[in-house]
Amino acid sequence: MAKIKIQKKDIWIDMTPMSDVMTLLLCFFMLTSTFLTPEPVSVTAPNSVSEVKIPEQDLLTILVTPEGRVFCGTENKNHMKAMMETMTDKFGVQLNATQQKHFLEDAMVGASMSQLPNYLNLDPEKMTEAVQKLGLPLDSINGGKSEFQEWVSAAREANSDMKLAIKCDSKTPYKTIKKLMSELQDMNENRFQLITNLDVKRLND
Questions:
Q1: What is the pTM of this model?
Q2: Mean pLDDT of 82-102
Q3: pLDDT tens digits for 69-85?
Q4: CB burial class (10 A; 0-12, 13-18, 19+) of residue 200?
Q5: Who's near 166: CB < 8 A, 6+ residues apart?
Q6: What Å distances lie between residue 29 and 50, 54, 143, 199, CA to CA?
Q7: How far is 22 from 28, CA to CA, in rounded Å?
Q8: What is the bridge-based pairing of β-strands 70-73 and 59-64?
Q9: How many other CB atoms are found less than 10 A from the CB of residue 52?
């Protein structure tokens, strides 16, 4: 009996619909994504098994480096502008249009009020280098609030619902963290979160 030959046909798949879907998905994610502002200094947070989610909005992030330098800021530029205006009025510091622009483009506040104008006069590239040696003062001013506390108060004035989150480096000295928390407690800011990296290995154990 003769063997029946099956005629081979070329298979052609129209990829146009898939490329259209991929383009739409790409546009969707680009338009809905929130791009985080880079932090002024590199901080490696310690690991923990806590799975509590940090709020994405109305959050004042307090950054503490291994050397004990303190920075703070929020992603909301309107709140940052209100904080800047409150602090410059309180300390009698005048900032021109260029300095204000640099302030709002910066990720966090990290210079004392006496250093702030000169810091904001620098080019953005030099600001990145200079900020590594700066930090908000934690010492009280004439027995009153410290500049760090004043910035936290300014954030509260900008948004009364502002949440506080502390992100410390794993090598930050305990005494620095204790002093920072004490300053917050002195302001009756007793509720704040600690930002850590999720330790998946310990969580699975």
A1: 0.75
A2: 93
A3: 899 999 889 999 999 99
A4: exposed
A5: 62, 64, 177, 180, 181, 192, 193, 194, 195
A6: 28, 21, 50, 28
A7: 10
A8: antiparallel
A9: 8
